[in-house]
Here is the input.
Amino acid sequence: MAQYRIVSGSVAVISIQNPPVNALSAAVRKGLLLSVRAAASDPLVRSVVISGHNGQFCGGADIKEFGNVSHLESGPHLVEIFESVEALAKPVVAAIEGFALGGGLELALACHYRFGHSEARVGLPEVSLGLLPGAGGSQRLPRLLGVRAALDMIVTGRHVAAGEALNLGLLDRVTDGNTVDTAVRFAQSVEGKPLDDRRLGNRPCPPLENIDAFFEEALIHARGRARGAAAPLACVQAVRGAATLPFLKGMELEKRLMETLMTSGQAQASRYCFFTERGAARWTTPTGARWDTCRARPISTAAVIGLGTMGRGITVALARAGLSVVAVETQEHQLDEAQRAVSRMLKGGGGVSYSADLQAAAGADLVVEAVFEDIAVKEEIFKQLSSVCKPGALLASNTSSLDIDRLASCTLRPEQVLGMHFFAPAHVMRLLEVVSGPRTSPQTVAAVMQLGRRMGKVSVAVGNCPGFVGNRMLKPYLEQAYFLLEEGASPELVDAALEEFGFPMGVFKMSDLSGLDIGWRVRKEEGLTGPGVTADQPMRTRHGRRYSPLGDLMCEEGRYGQKTGRGWYLYDRPGGRVARSDPWLRSFLEEYRARHGLLARRIDQQEVLERCLYALINEGFRVLEDGVAASPQNIDAIYVFGYGWPKHRGGPMFYAAQVGLARVLEGLEKYHKAHPDSPHLQPCSLLRRLVARGSPPIHKWSEVVKGHRSQL
Ligand code: 3H9
Here is the structure.
């Protein structure tokens, strides 16, 4: 757990050994402290080097222990160990290879010198786990870097590359060679030298002018970005402590703040997200194939068909993953524009060639179709691709909701067809829904899941149904938002409730951003609005269910959202981004309600949240029941990484468990009783069964889902 050896006669090399990331588990902590004590008491040892096994320094505290107080409390605490390291009368050098993150970097900060390999990364990412650097990091880093740079690293949690760390003064030296050997040589050279000014705990924080104003502003800034998360604010408070208090008092403050965060639901939710992100890589398919039994053929060349916004982003994402990409756009004028845009995004050519001819896709291992969302157009392309592409090539569609099996049927290789649902902007957003149809082969899924990882995506394998997982669940959420407007709410009220909950944007601002015309076109295709609707059909009912034509009426007025400068909000110009309330909309809604005999009532934020979120969660349970998602964790990963669900709330299914399934059920029953014509509010049977079984914890839900038809 901590290997101890003496080299060059006088240097004790302590190597942390706990694969895969050398996390500081109870056993490692014990080993580390014993080794430090051994080095302290051995008269032959005159200096110490701390390193990590297998080229990785340390990934920090063992996150798996956080949910388990007995593990966390067994073994010495990190603070105690780091105090012993810092207090050692012999120079201690950290030799950082790979990464030093969280508790790993805090260990390095307790050392007297820090050496790094040129490819190493360091950081204090605790904030993304709903925590702060709680083993002295919040107090030592500001003393080393100054408040500004330390605060930035601690509040953002960003990883810092070795070069930048050297410039910041976080690393003393960076080497391309063997970091441990370099550190050993250096350690010998400083044996016997005074260490007092190397102990960060002894140093004052570099002074900062207007300190109160600085921290007031930092707090406002952090609050603005935190979207309700407590950890960033606690980080600011802790760093303020470093700047204003003696070291030991600052450590006490750090401890108090850490205890509050550690026991909060937010840390639990963030930790859950950490594991759901990684768990998504362990996928399964209907034929019983699994991530660990299925070999994927590597993909090295790709073609992207259609270079609109999505196609361009996909091209960039594939090129950045190291693939050689041919980008195809049959409309010549758009091809030139796309070429310029892609080159700009890639800052140069980056392995992309361009063509106006579909034949150019002939040699690709994978083709991603990203044309206009029209099933007839896509069917035609898949038919052509089937004959153009080489036999082993995989054919993927970037559709956000259309039937993958219908596209597969247009080809002679249905087992090689699947969906790759990217999210805009495709080169930035982390989520990728990998959609398998009933005939998609496990090898096809495996190859694309592996490619997703190469692109740095959180790839989630899902089944084939309208809207797949994410958009299918979004539909009832949007629907309830429209209904709330009919009943008396305003877009501002609905959006404020959702933004306070933690979404970066409320549902109406989001619709304005993506364009109201997109949903309008889909509803026309579905025969819900447009010429297919006969005059005698009631305006607010479709197929016996409540329907809100509000979105259609807005589009008929030419209000498509940001692109037309008017939507649910008013913008200063077409394409403008700053939303303002629109008095026109207020009277439009009043007239609409009067025309339909609807009485506006007072709606509070709680009702907004419950109606919108419970309807979405209810659909999530249906998705599980239908086997379209393999687990609640997968649904949560989709929502956190693709739909802006706040990480500190874990994802919709985790949130449901945290609120209490019985309470969610009760809420749905209440709202369904009040709105019996809205079937999305009718609690689904899986939710009822889970409540009947005493609401088991989320990792046990699959036992209740079992027996249902699985598409995965
Ligand atoms: C902390 O330090 C608190 C202190 O301030 C104070 C305490 C008092 N623990 O990501 P990967 C697992 S908080 C346990 O796929 P990569 C991970 O689940 C900690 N397990 O690899 C996965 O397991 P599986 C602050 C961990 O190469 C496997 O290792 N530190 C931990 O793409 C491989 O992980 C952080 O927040 C851990 N600390 O990336 C760093 N880390 O194979 C968190 C990973 O079963 N870790 N695992 O799915 C990372 O950011 C990345 O894992 C890292 C490697 C960059 C290190």
